[in-house]
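Q: For a teaching session next week I want to show students how multiple molecules come together into a single three-dimensional assembly. I've collected the sequence lines for a complex. Could you give me the predicted structure tokens for the whole thing so I can convert them for display?
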Amino acid sequence: MDAGTPKFRRRKADRPEEIVSAALAVFAEKGFAAAKLDDIARRAGVSKGAVYLYFETKEDVFRAVVERAILPNLSVVKAMAAAHPGPLADLLRGLAGHIAGVVETTPIGGVLKMVVGEARNFPELARVWHDELIVHALGAMAEAIRNAQARGEVKLGDPRTFALQLISPLLVGVLWRETFVPVGAQPFDLPALMRQHIDTLLGGMLTEGARA
Amino acid sequence: MDAGTPKFRRRKADRPEEIVSAALAVFAEKGFAAAKLDDIARRAGVSKGAVYLYFETKEDVFRAVVERAILPNLSVVKAMAAAHPGPLADLLRGLAGHIAGVVETTPIGGVLKMVVGEARNFPELARVWHDELIVHALGAMAEAIRNAQARGEVKLGDPRTFALQLISPLLVGVLWRETFVPVGAQPFDLPALMRQHIDTLLGGMLTEGARA
DNA sequence: AACTAATAACTGACCAGTCAGTTAGTAACA
DNA sequence: TGTTACTAACTGACTGGTCAGTTATTAGTT
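A: Of course. Below is the structure for the complete assembly, covering every listed component.
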């Protein structure tokens, strides 16, 4: 062949990472079943056969994608777990800003959509996400809320439910962006949404005058 | 053949309904691509060929399922559109109870999961849901909130964002039930969740003492 | 009532296309 | 030159969609 441009490079160390990145893009766009291994391979700059040098099956690739999407977020969980002692309001505002930023700059939204969409076909995947990420995140938030309740900062009520109330608009905002914005829906500004949400949830939605 | 047990019955009028019901169950469980037409047909008590007497393609069946899931909810939208003039708190409490009930007694949760999961592969489906259901529901809520703001009941802030804040926990609760409860997650009591959420969002999460 | 003809709802075997996974062989690098 | 990362052609299983034939049902005739 042409000696000037080799047909391929041997780069064993980098391939898995590249394949997982390509797979993330394709899976997030198409979902598991509709994603073709040929597309993933082409996007990663290798042949389909090469994918099978590094992964056993398509499921195996999918698993790698979903699990990798957890890692960058463990730091967030850890930060939350660092049991911020100050006023809950400060913690929540900082946290919401941080998470909204992560959500806007990483493809975690696409992964979330995948986990929701493929949960029945890959229960163990939903289990990994639940056990390794969600339980910890929700638990840390609930713990912080419980502490705030003990300090008399926060009213009575189920802390886990409070935690869900706090993050729900962000999750819905992400799914909204992934699902409806591509078909013409008016997008939400996620950081602004979370700012208003935290303020409202903390301070109350009704004015003083109308409050029961 | 055996004259006692006929091989099939001719029931043209009932078939489409039965096929759509069967398809709803299979699609909600497997997602679009993983759902086999043979399964849908068997579940509906007919052969695969019979499905094609009533629907053009698999996509066509899917469309019918998703569109039918909109109808029962138009009444809810209408009820909201009946621009409740009284205090916003009453409207929201009644509405939340109603919607939580609908969500608990109908398979709309499964359909929502499908719409989210297959949005990329079926954009026109996401469009239908957005244009015919979500825009109206969100718009009606935003309108009620805007009116309440005009009456001085509610603080300043984007009404559409307020509406999203209000319904988000319900949506997340549904997706939670569909995605994580089957793999062992602790479920949420949706009506209770919404009661606490409405109360909190309306009245404020912080105690009087801690309020900024 | 009983028999027959006509209709259309329905079946199930089949086909054509697709795609996950395999492997024989080639090219890159030591 | 030997080793192996990699390619590209291949296979086999699976499934959406088709259609020739079958059977339930109704209408017509005696």
